[in-house]
Amino acid sequence: MSELIKLNLTSTLANLGEELLNPSEELLQIINREHQYNAWFTPENVLQAVQAIGKMLNRADLKKWLPEDASTVFTGKKVGLVLAGNIPVVGFHDVLCVLVSGHFAMIKASANDARLITYILQKLVALEPEFANRYEFTERLANFDAVMATGSNNTSRYFEYYFGKVPNIIRKNRNSLALLSGFENEEQLQKLGHDIFDYYGLGCRNVSKILVPEGYDFGILFRAIEPFQPIINHHKYNNNYDYNKSVYLVNQAKHLDNGFLLLKQDEKLASPLAVLYYDFYADLNDAITKLNTQKEAIQCVVSSMKLNADVPFVDFGESQQPRLWDYADGVDTMAFLKTI
Predict the structure, then answer these.
(1) A GO molecular function for this record (predicted)?
(2) pLDDT tens for each residue of 69-86
(3) Domains of the chain as residue ranges with CATH
């Protein structure tokens, strides 16, 4: 029997957001230990990811996303979640959507990223105990009514085979790019540095390619992103930089190099780590055509130009600060969950 559970979701989630924006000593200890399990998860990056969720769960945005004094009918429907682990707490939004839709979340967390999401859900339960019986962690999904799975283009084929008989959202590889006019100021380009380098470029919302007008002066970009030079001190990032630089040198491939980032012209969207692809456009119509041609592989476009293209645009420095309604792959997760 469905149980009508009255939850003031806005207040509950806003309070959770406040706790994440102002992490306790216990949470800070977890954050500082994450690099022991995944060398990419440095304390600075993990803290940034946790606080990005805290910022997402602000009261004003929650009121837009959820009705005030929302009531949730516990449907009993089980939604299996296969979470990614490329950047810290990347799967939280999927879990949140399932919980506030009134379904039961069966969570298969990434081994790289199981501890933080466990902690955050425990804090949610402390704020609203009714959520205690709304989720579980599992190593193997079974007896589910729907699935949301995030993986690579290769794993998506497995997901489609295994989960194809139930309602599903199956996400493949996506990347983000920046569209530059050539008239950006230094502040905008420094913010672009965050879109490129935050989480070492491992996220689908990280900029892996820039579209620039013909004749663009890359020296302006290199000067603006110079404050990000310390990224080269991370050994895994440095290894990728050295490897890709060696490949380009051996193959005599034309590229630009500022000592911590390689720029290479390429039509592809997904660049290797420590490499930023670039391509030229002749005019804005050409830029729109290039964006629309790759729209199925684009997560978002960073730009001050809001063109009439079939892709979501965000401002400089905001690619890794999604809002509650910035759904992955442009698929409205909440609308999907209402159909189950």
Answers:
(1) acyl-CoA dehydrogenase activity
(2) 465 678 889 999 999 999
(3) 3-173 (3.40.605.10), 175-314 (3.40.309.10)
